[in-house]
Write a structure and sequence with these properties.
Elements lengths: L3 E4 L5 E11 L16 E8 L8 E10 L14 H12 L4 E6 L4 E4 L3 E6 L2 E4 L10 H8 L4 E2 L4 H5 L3 E6 L3 E8 L2 E2 L4 H13 L6
Parallel strand pairs: 4-5, 4-11, 8-9
Antiparallel strand pairs: 1-2, 2-3, 5-6, 7-8, 7-10, 10-11, 11-12
């Protein structure tokens, strides 16, 4: 997962994240380039954002994600929907926002996958129509810690717990959703412990 040490002035280090991006190169106005491509790979290193240790304040976004199976699961740069949703969340004073698709199914947050606890089991929505197949989400599924299934907004509202996850921030508990306080059962500390044992960098 994309976790690294971010060096600051004076030689001191603190946890940071690294992201890569790729541009195939060539072409004009959406026209595929002819001949051999000269791709550009971009690498950015940045400090991790600060979040309240007691958990995230998350809002419901009014911005819906378009269904496009050809792009579903891919971390691409066509993320205007997420930009609009994050701006909406910031205006409401929230840390993040949960997003639905055009059918009203829960998909993800603006920069993380969502996982909900129901009947003692962690569940995460599929990303076959939209959303990103996140690395942390994939790890949870591979380890048998979470299962993929359709999730409706009312199921999130009634969940025993809600967490967000991605490769940079790891697992982040949701403390408030739409202004309502959410519980923090022992299952949250248990799944955090699993991640920290496998990847100690996230325990910092």
């Amino acid at each position: 997962m994309a976790r690294c040490a971010h060096r600051r002035a004076g030689g001191r280090c603190r946890p940071g994240g690294a992201q890569t991006g790729a541009d195939p190169g060539g072409g004009w106005a959406g026209v595929p380039p002819a001949g051999r491509l000269a791709p550009t790979v971009l690498l950015s290193v940045h400090a991790l954002p600060e979040y309240a240790r007691q958990g995230l304040d998350v809002a419901w976004s009014t911005i819906r994600l378009a269904v496009q199976p050809a792009l579903a699961g891919i971390k691409h740069l066509n993320r205007l929907e997420q930009v609009l949703a994050r701006r909406e969340a910031a205006a409401a004073g929230a840390d993040e926002a949960l997003m639905l698709d055009m059918d009203g199914q829960v998909v993800c947050a603006t920069a993380a996958n969502v996982v909900v606890l129901r009947d003692g089991c962690w569940l995460t929505p599929p990303v076959s129509g939209s959303g990103v197949a996140g690395i942390c989400r994939g790890w949870l599924i591979e380890q048998g810690l979470a299962s993929e299934t359709d999730v409706l907004p009312e199921q999130v509202e009634a969940a025993e717990a809600v967490i967000l996850c991605n490769a940079v921030r790891g697992i982040l508990p949701v403390a408030r959703l739409g202004g309502r306080e959410l519980p923090r059962p022992p299952a949250i500390d248990s799944i955090l412990g699993e991640l920290h044992a496998a990847m100690p960098a996230f325990a910092r």
